Amino acid sequence: MSAATPTPQDSGLPPPATLPSELSAAEPSSDSKPTILHLGDDIRWNHELYAELQKKFNIVRTYSMGRDEFQKALKEKRWGDFVGMYRPFWNTGGEMGNWDGQLISLLPTSCKIYASAGAGFDWVDTRTLAAHGTIYCNSASACTESVADAAIVLILSCYRAIPWSFLAARSCDPKEFADANQNIAAVTHNPNGSVLGIVGLGRIGLRIAEKATRAFEMRVKYFDVVRMEDREKSVGAEFCPTLEELLATSDCILLATPFSGSTLLSTRELAQFKRGSRLVNIARGKLIDEDALNAALDDGMISAAGLDVHADEPNVNKRLAERRNVMMMSHTAGASVESHIGFERLGIENLLGWLEKGERGVVSPVNLEWLKRE
């Protein structure tokens, strides 16, 4: 995610404490502790937990570092044989770009865990990391509430033409205001009783379903690669065995699934939507063919869209941006102080859990099924 990091002053929380530079006599020396490579800025909130991390690990830092310099440092073994990496924020510590095979091949064989902020991991080749013997841990649970709240905003925007009304009022043009005031009622609807079709009933998809059913009395259908009967029962959801069935029978489609490397919705899939239905994406922009979406909006197959994410970030599709039936955000659905605090904490918990129990101790791994074990 690319949200601006709130300062401690903005959040009302105390500023970062000065990190200790020396270990007490009772603590093991840095030479006897395994090394963690901390990517990016200082932590801001979880200082007591970070102090616990310092007791167990020797922590070395990259701060802000571009890809070329980072690769050079790895080749030179500047940080030695570190056993893990810690990236507490989504918008710092990632200056080296995508974690592809080229970068992963330079990691020492001692590197067994990478704990990073953020829910999505399309920028990390998790299979190649696993083949290297490195567990990748994300932080999806930390931003679940924030993403789910933003998803509800986008869903309501699609049903109630919020962007049209907002832009008309914001224009300060009496004609634009009158046009929205007089004509929006004829094309907007309440979401109550309509079908929300969720692609991906993971932690975030489930939380959105809970909010949509309990607060707005929507009915939920879902499609996923694995049926989740306990989750579907908890929200009264109906499982669709195929994506095609979900698209054809839903009034609003919500994407809450990871990007696996290929577009999910293009011309063929968008033609399978119920005519006049809506599309919301809080997952990854590349899941949608934006040219095909523009065509579906022109045709009326899709009546409205809500997009937190975009295919070519930070560049936004101009045709989509010009539409008054498309609500847009700047990939900030998960951006909140609470998410930041959780990202920090969960990353540290993964590292401490790994040190104590190995792979059984990690909290949020995503690539264990492919992990190369010694």
Automatic annotation (TrEMBL):
Residues 1-33 are annotated as: Disordered. Residues 181-333 form the D-isomer specific 2-hydroxyacid dehydrogenase NAD-binding domain. It holds the Pfam family 2-Hacid_dh_C. InterPro entries: D-isomer_2-hydroxyacid_DH, D-isomer_DH_CS, D-isomer_DH_CS1, D-isomer_DH_NAD-bd, NAD(P)-bd_dom_sf. One of its GO terms (cellular component) is cytosol. Residues 1-10 have a biased composition (Polar residues). The keyword Oxidoreductase applies. Coiled coil: none annotated. GO terms for molecular function: glyoxylate reductase (NADPH) activity; hydroxypyruvate reductase [NAD(P)H] activity; NAD binding. Keywords: Oxidoreductase. PANTHER family: 2-HYDROXYACID DEHYDROGENASE-RELATED, D-ISOMER SPECIFIC 2-HYDROXYACID DEHYDROGENASE NAD-BINDING DOMAIN-CONTAINING PROTEIN-RELATED. This is D-mandelate dehydrogenase-like protein.
